[in-house]
Predict the structure.
Amino acid sequence: LRLCHVAALAGSIAAGLMGSAAGASSTAATSPSYVICKGGFRHDCVVDGDTFWLGRMKVRLADIDTPEITDAKCASERQRGEAARDRLLALLNSREWELVLDGKDRYRRALGRLVSGNADAGAILVREGFAVLMVAIAGLGADHRSKLFVQLGEG
């Protein structure tokens, strides 16, 4: 990921998120080189296909979901999760991205989208079959049971 700035910016964004109103958007750019997260130290690394660390800030890509790796229900899900993680890693390291933040999820991770020109990393992951689109259904609450998962096909 060749974005614009790095750890100091991530720290200030994380501090800003703690005090920002829910749903308020913040925009940041970053530029570290990403690796797969290993061990307890998490910094500029990819956890799975929809979660990564920017400096000390954990970011969850908004509006998509990818297969689990750590809590996979079977070997096939773990393999698909690893493939999604590897694709997100390749995307992050392939070009300059802008991180557009929009609040926090129920686990207090920063929610955001990665955009570069007309490209959206989440949309790329969905289009290539690594992720599904996650749509909140109005009025059903904010927990995971209130999400509708839609698999988008070709065409």
User: Anything to note?
Assistant: The chain has three helices and eleven strands. The first strand starts at residue 25 and ends at 29. The radius of gyration is 15 Å. The longest helix spans residues 75-94.
